[in-house]
Design a protein that fits this description.
Blueprint: E1 8-11, H1 25-38, E2 41-45, H2 57-62, E3 68-71, E4 83-86, H3 88-91, H4 110-123, H5 128-149, E5 155-159, E6 162-166, H6 181-196, E7 209-210, H7 217-237
Parallel strand pairs: 1-2, 2-3
Antiparallel strand pairs: 3-4, 5-6, 6-7
Helix pairs in contact: 5-7, 6-7
């Protein structure tokens, strides 16, 4: 109804800033169709998903071509840098070719650019993402299988190299508002116990985790074993044993 008044739609194609909230790809494809129909831009925020699902991020994973994409510090090998890119028609409007001026104090910092270039060369190696995603599946499966075996209401949600602790069993969560407060409380308690045992995670139950190429199978097995032990002992101590159901 308001297509002529909407300049752009910006969305995380894989929401990962308030849990890993996997969306229906039909919704993303419908956004692409309706924005193209009305001449609005479709912008993918891939600050988290970029280069973590595959080299082309969620856009490549879903085979959806947005008009613009934004990336975070992952494009600089973890150095403080961000980037955006898009269709040539749009990017040609950026100075010096076009009238839109964009600059920053640290734009094009040579150390960040060198780090990013080195990282991207590694990401382009044959089999890089296949091996990375297989590691993630291996790690999360160790935890999910254990939780199922012992009737623990924990499910590791994963996509590419991204994972997240869902303490609502196998309930599919698509919005941050659907995350139960009790789920976050479970994470808080387990987080500190894991910290004491040398397993470092992000300090919030809403944060996602990442498997990297640097992680070995032995390290992932060790981490999963300790996570399983801590989750089970914590929940059983509080009398929390529930069959995992859809």
């Amino acid at each position: 109804r308001h297509g002529q008044q909407i300049a752009a739609v910006i969305i995380e194609p894989v929401p990962a800033n308030n849990g890993l909230l996997l969306q229906d790809v039909k919704f993303l494809k419908a956004l692409r169709e309706v924005t193209a129909l009305h001449g609005s831009l479709l912008i993918f925020d891939e600050v988290i998903s970029g280069f973590r699902l595959c080299f082309c991020g969620a856009a490549g994973w879903y085979n959806i071509q947005p008009d613009l994409i934004t990336y975070g510090k992952i494009i600089g090998g973890g150095m403080p840098v961000g980037a955006y890119g898009g269709r040539a028609e749009i990017m040609n409007k950026i100075a010096p070719e076009g009238p839109v001026y964009q600059a920053g104090t640290l734009s094009g910092n040579p150390v960040a650019m060198a780090a990013g270039y080195a990282q991207l060369q590694i990401c382009l190696e044959n089999g890089f993402y296949q091996a990375l995603n297989e590691k993630t599946l291996y790690f999360t499966s160790l935890i999910n299988d254990y939780a199922t075996q012992h009737d623990l209401p924990l499910r590791m949600v994963a996509m590419g190299s991204i994972f997240w602790f869902n303490f609502d069993g196998k309930k599919t969560i698509r919005s941050a508002g659907a995350i139960a407060p009790s789920s976050v409380n479970w994470f808080k308690e387990i987080y500190h116990q894991l910290l004491e045992r040398g397993i470092y995670l992000g300090p919030s139950g809403y944060e996602v985790g990442f498997v990297s190429a640097a992680h070995s199978t032995e390290q992932l097995t060790h981490a999963a074993t300790i996570i399983n032990q801590v989750v089970r002992s914590t929940m059983e101590a509080k009398g929390m044993r529930a069959a995992v159901t859809e």
